[in-house]
């Protein structure tokens, strides 16, 4: 029986709307799969191996007490003998110079203000002679620059110039001592005390550890560092003065201060630059309580030579080293690699370890930073970025349409 016109129309509507549903569903499917985020991929990580070095074996003096440290390294690297505070003789003048420069700063190449010396300074000169202390000449009315006065104090170790400088900077000896006490506290030098400006007093004391810190502060002051490195100087009225540090220029030594009294013995606070690989490390050391400066100088030479062997430049990573790898569901691959070479200067058996981390990725371009490898070198952290070595591209429509179950749902 033929369909009525109404039935034909109804069937056509059913076919049309069924086809429309199929088309809309297909368009929705294609849109959903084409726009849905691809799954994030976690990196498979490779951790850096711990690095180990043999322990350093410095040749420590068999007398007194001593310690070594280095600029950029916290605290002391090693010590021998007593760690207690002991008299430090004219090494005290290093503190005097630093405290004077705290009140009267001096640039590396500057002479500083002029100082006119008076009858009071001449009286100081005769008082120091009466104490059997070391002196340099002074005349009322003479004028020295601040730098020249520091040279007179530090090179020939003149006690009278230590006191004259302190009074010039602070107004009186007592005011200087109060300022020095505050300066020591500010710099965490709790085991150091100064009772005078020259170290002739046995109450001017310090520990090897504190003296290493004082040495670092001295070398960090450009004006003071340049003065203590001078073998000699020619000063108005005073004439030629010679540095009492006979090791200057040997074993790389460029400072800092000698000291000698009956109670303290022979002492030397020293600094030297050591070449280690492509780096230079400034070693700061102190030897206290020697019978004479010949013994101290021989001990310092042996200590420097053997301490140098305790520094090593170690490779932490090389540029391009793989620490992580990505493998996507659609077959794309990339690696997380070190962005640069990195090395570290280490002392002795300082532990070196590392941890590599990288974030999960969906897509990424070559050279994108995706994480880091963080090396722990003693108590310092060295971080190197990790970057992609190749691009992770979108998988494209063909893979998307054929892998709907592997795409992430919205939200």
What would you note in describing this structure?
This protein is an alpha+beta fold and 411 residues long. The chain folds into 2 domains: 44-52 and 315-406, Peptidoglycan synthesis regulatory factor (PBP3), Domain 2 (Sandwich); 88-309, 3-Layer(aba) Sandwich (Beta-lactamase), CATH 3.40.710.10. It contains 10 helices and 19 strands. It has helices at 5-35, 92-103, 119-130, 146-154, 159-170, 173-186, 208-220, 222-228, 293-308, 397-402; strands at 44-45, 65-70, 78-80, 86-87, 114-116, 143-145, 205-206, 232-235, 239-242, 253-261, 265-276, 279-290, 311-317, 322-327, 333-338, 342-347, 352-358, 369-377, 380-388. Residues 19-35 have low confidence and may be disordered.
Based on the model shown, name its key terms:
411 residues; Beta-lactamase; Peptidoglycan synthesis regulatory factor (PBP3), Domain 2; 10 helices; 32% helix; alpha+beta; 6-stranded antiparallel sheet; 5-stranded antiparallel sheet
């Amino acid at each position: 029986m033929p369909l009525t016109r109404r039935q034909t129309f109804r069937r056509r509507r059913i076919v049309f709307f069924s086809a429309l549903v199929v088309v809309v569903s297909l368009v929705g499917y294609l849109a959903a799969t084409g726009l849905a985020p691809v799954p994030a991929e976690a990196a498979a990580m490779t951790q850096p191996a711990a690095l180990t070095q043999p322990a350093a074996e410095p040749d420590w003096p068999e007398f007194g007490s001593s310690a070594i440290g280095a600029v950029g390294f916290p605290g002391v690297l090693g010590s021998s003998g007593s760690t207690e505070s002991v008299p430090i003789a004219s090494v005290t003048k290093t503190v005097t110079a630093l405290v004077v420069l705290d009140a009267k700063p001096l640039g590396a190449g500057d002479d500083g203000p002029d100082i006119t010396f008076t009858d009071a300074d001449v009286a100081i000169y005769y008082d120091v002679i009466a104490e059997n202390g070391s002196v340099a000449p002074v005349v009322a009315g003479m004028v020295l620059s601040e730098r020249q006065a520091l040279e007179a104090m530090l090179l020939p170790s003149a006690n009278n110039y230590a006191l004259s400088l302190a009074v010039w900077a602070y107004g009186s000896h007592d005011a200087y001592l109060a300022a020095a006490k505050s300066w020591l506290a500010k710099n965490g030098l709790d085991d150091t005390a100064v009772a005078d400006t020259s170290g002739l007093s046995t109450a001017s004391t310090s520990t090897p550890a504190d003296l290493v810190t004082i040495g670092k502060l001295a070398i960090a002051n450009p004006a003071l560092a340049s003065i203590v490195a001078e073998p000699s100087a020619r000063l108005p009225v005073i004439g030629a003065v010679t540095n009492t540090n006979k090791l200057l220029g040997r074993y790389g030594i460029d400072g800092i201060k000698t000291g000698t009294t009956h109670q303290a013995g022979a002492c030397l606070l020293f600094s030297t630059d050591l070449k280690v690989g492509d780096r230079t490390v400034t070693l700061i050391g102190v030897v206290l309580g020697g019978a004479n400066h010949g013994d101290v100088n021989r001990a310092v030479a042996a200590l420097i030579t053997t301490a140098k062997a305790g520094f090593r430049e170690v490779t932490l990573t090389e540029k391009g080293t793989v620490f992580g790898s990505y493998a996507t569901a659609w077959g794309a691959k990339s690696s997380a690699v070190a962005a640069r070479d990195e090395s570290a200067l280490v002392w002795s058996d300082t532990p070196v370890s590392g941890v590599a981390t990288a974030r999960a990725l969906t897509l990424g371009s070559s050279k994108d930073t995706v994480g880091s490898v963080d090396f722990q070198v003693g108590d310092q952290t060295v971080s190197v970025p990790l970057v992609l070595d190749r691009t992770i591209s979108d998988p494209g429509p063909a893979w998307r349409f054929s892998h709907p179950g592997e795409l992430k749902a919205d939200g």
